[in-house]
Amino acid sequence: MSGEEKIFFQEAFDSNWIAPLGPQVDAFEREVADYVGINHTLALSSGTAALHLALEVLGVSSGDIVFCSDLTFVASANVIRYQNAKPIFIDCNMESWTMCPKALQKAMDQGQKPKAVIVTDLYGQSADYDAIYEICNAFQIPIISDAAEAFGADYKGKKCGGIGDLNILSFNGNKIITTSGGGMMLSQNKEWIQKARKLATQARENAVHYEHKMVGYNYRLSNLLAAVGRGQLKVLDDRVEKRRIIFQTYKNAFSNIDGIDFMPEADYGLSNRWLTVCTIDPGKLGLDRNKIIHAMEKENIECRPLWKPMHLQPLFSGEKLYTQAETPNSDKLFQNGLCLPSGTNLSEEEQEKIINIIFAQLA
Q1: Which candidate in 21, 172, 285, 338 could, as Cys together with 289 as Cys, close a disulfide (CB 3.0–4.6 Å)?
Q2: CATH code assigned to 236-362
Q3: Per residue in 97-142, pLDDT tens?
Q4: 121, 90, 78: which is closest to 311 by C-alpha?
Q5: pLDDT digits 0-9 by tens, 63-75
Q6: Taking the domain 5-233, which CATH number applies?
């Protein structure tokens, strides 16, 4: 917490707007819209809820196909199954670790036209949207930008969360700013946001009684949690700067080690470096990333592998759901990828300890 949250939280408490919705939600939506540079926003209970509503708004239903980044958190794919639709997972490239435009084109050329494409901005870095839009526009396919990990990052000067036709943010407890639990949908399309807003409030009709003509959901954000988000938003740029410093400290420490390579920053944007992620080459170093993870565990420090690609998840096993690039890049990154401690409150002393533990394993 930054300390700013208490001010807005107290405002909500004093006003007695405790239940979901209220002035803090309205203000949070406006302030995020201003930050991202987009016209319409909808504060929700989670990023997953926002992804789900995005598919609902676009009319994705049983039997439809949705293309999705392969190297991502499972929520991006779960929502496709919520709609009884079929996911096709698109491999990443090694230049950005995000959706590979060549693999996307390959999937399109196979003749399976998707109802939408969900593109993940991975570990704080945006995908190459110009290249992806060129492909999708040719087939008139809308893009859902899953910017859950990339709030504060940008693509060619535009803020992540405002680049897709529909955009998703997450304010879960592990994100760069948090409302404890929460998310947001963003779009320039007013009608889409209005439809999502209705669906998120149990699809209630405009009547004095409770009237419902369609299935709805209880997906709105609490007024209290929106107050926390307003305080967090004030320090977002500071958080991005701190995460980038943490990343650069790690990178500088291991710059002369052949076999430790960090996630590259694409030349088209600025990553928020939500997590510092790297690959460990066993052939060059004589150890794999699991040895580092175990060494950290002994010191009560948590490291993790990268996201396990969706096409390798048991949930989707046995189905031909994967369109890879020239080589299966997401597989390679998962096998050797490592997420290092990257929290904004990580001290210089703590980071030095982490670096020394890794050097001890290389000795």
Answers
A1: 338
A2: 3.90.1150.10
A3: 999 999 999 999 988 899 999 999 999 999 999 999 999 999 999 9
A4: 90
A5: 999 999 999 999 9
A6: 3.40.640.10
